[in-house]
Fold:
Amino acid sequence: MSTETVTTEAGDARITWHPAGAPRLLLAVSHGAGGGIDARDLGALAAVLPGHGVSVALVEQPWRVAGKKVAPAPKTLDLGWRGLWPALAATGLPVIAGGRSAGARVACRTAAELGAHAVLALSFPLHPPGRPEKSRAAELLGAGVPTLVVQGGNDPFGRPEEFPPGDGAPYRLVEVPSADHGFAVPKRAALGQDEAVTIVTDAVTTWTASLT
Structure:
């Protein structure tokens, strides 16, 4: 594991590299608006995927590196992501653009222009909680590349059954039963917390293995 600081027009971003021994893909994945790269799903992917030939780059957006508590506007998030993309592309590997929550929206919005190989959307915020009429489905369906969504069954930002059918680019959705926006499951759930995280890592591992 190593860490690299990348200067962007939105400020300094930080990449924490988890390289595979003989990588065939790079998953670059960023955090949401309310947390960092220590999120349970991001950490699990960084631990598991390198063993399957996928290097992982955990990306901290400039606002997070600067110690700010509130994420900036979407256009500023996109600016930071664009600015660090050359460091990801420099690996020479096909890059999967990924993120959780707000980071997933960034990945979807910029995938086509940056030449992403695919998009991984973890806990995609389909709409603000309690506001299904404020749908962001167009961002997801407009990614233009193969896309995997991993979504908690009880995510207030969009339950799996609320998502539209995929059209255009290949689009898949995997549900983590009973999980919330952070893939946490209640104690009364039929599956434990470790099992919930394993659903995430297994889904991403299987999907990346199918990418050509």
Q: What stands out?
A: The longest helix spans residues 193-210. The chain has a mean pLDDT of 95.
